[in-house]
Amino acid sequence: MFSMSKTLRPLITLLTLLNVLIGYGQKFTNLALTPPMGWNSWNRFGCEINEKVIREAADAMVSTGMKSAGYKYIVIDDCWQISRDSLGFIQADPQKFPSGIKALADYIHSKGLKFGIYSCAGRETCGNRPGSHGHEFQDALTYASFGVDFLKLDWCNTEGQNAVESYGLMRDALYAAGREVVFSMCEWGLSKPWEWAQDTGHLWRTTGDIQNNWNIPDAKEGKCWGGGVIINLDMQQGLEKYAGPDHWNDPDMLEVGNGILTQSESRAHFSLWCMLAAPLFAGNDLAAMDKVTRELLTNKELIAIDQDPLGKQGFKIKDYGELEIYYKPLQNDELAICILNRFSNSIGIELNWKNMELTARKREMFLNFQ
């Protein structure tokens, strides 16, 4: 069980007071100059996680070549925590993580990887575990003591809260704790974080949770807030000007390798996320990954498009109904083109590349998106 030292406890009060008096108002910079890449436990395991599952994912990230391909974060999602102690410090589930979170983080770091963890801006997480509301500075210090490198902060059970204030408070708490942490804001796009979160987080969700299907919406309270791959793709339209180095639109994690998408759908899913300069977080069982999935997730050419240093999000330039063409500016005056066939059957198409060329004026406009 994690126990905060007597000398560290009053530090929380001091850091909170300093934050009120001088206001940090900033995030750690230059931690995500290209979209972060890693693995998250949620899409495959949900709440059925434990330290064995997480260690095996870290082992597999190395042995399958994913680390060499650029993946580096191993992120535990919801349900690792179970309670708070008498002083309010978050406690890991001792049944699932008997060695403790610090030991797990040390193991992941020993593999040359980085460690991520999950919390929620509300009073409880989406899995009804303790959230961070009212404990932001305590939790940030706890995460620093664990060796956390990445924090995903969800938005369940936040009735009456303001997203700008809540995420700004956790940003300040992380900065006050002093350990550099990539901050992933999982607010589902409800408050249009792309318009205000550039100085708060390194990535922010633009949709509700992705569903493990191609094109079925997930409706909550009568409102479509996300869904299958195509639903989340379409919700990125017009957001390209808000993304760039250290501040990325996040259409949610990958469903590649989770057994529902066809091979063609999986290839399109991964290719489109790379065109979007999306954070690439695999959500499958890495330890049981088949060759086809591994080869797709480690495709060097596609990953190079996603990780291009220019940091421009791709966008749709032609729409023929069920046939669409996406364009992504790259460094060295290069570009990537992706042709998406939404039909269920194969079709032939002839493209005149001269007609595809953008005028100098349009190209300059696209390249100068802030």
Short description:
With 370 residues, this protein is α/β, with parallel strands linked by helices.
Q: How many strands in all?
A: 15
Q: Looking at CATH, which topology would you report? A: TIM Barrel
Largest sheet: 8 strands, parallel
Terminal-residue CA separation:
46 Å
**What is the CATH level 1 assignment?**
Alpha Beta
The total count of helices amounts to 13
Q: Give the integer mean of the pLDDT values.
A: 90
Give the number of domains: 1
Q: Radius of gyration, Cα only, in angstroms?
A: 21 Å
Shape: globular
Q: Spell out the CATH superfamily.
A: Aldolase class I
Oligomerization state: single chain
Structural class: alpha/beta
List keywords for this structure.
disordered N terminus; TIM Barrel; alpha/beta; disordered C terminus; 370 residues; eight-stranded parallel β-sheet; globular; 15 strands
Describe this entry's structure for a reader.
The protein has a single domain, classed as Alpha-Beta Barrel (TIM Barrel). A hairpin with a 2-residue loop joins strand 9 and strand 10 (223-227). The radius of gyration is 21 Å and the shape is globular. It has 370 residues and is α/β, with parallel strands linked by helices. The strands form 4 sheets. Strands 11-8-7-6-5-2-1-12 form an 8-stranded parallel sheet. It is 31% helix and 18% strand. It is built from 13 helices and 15 strands. The model is unreliable at 1-7, 13-23 and 363-370 (pLDDT under 50).
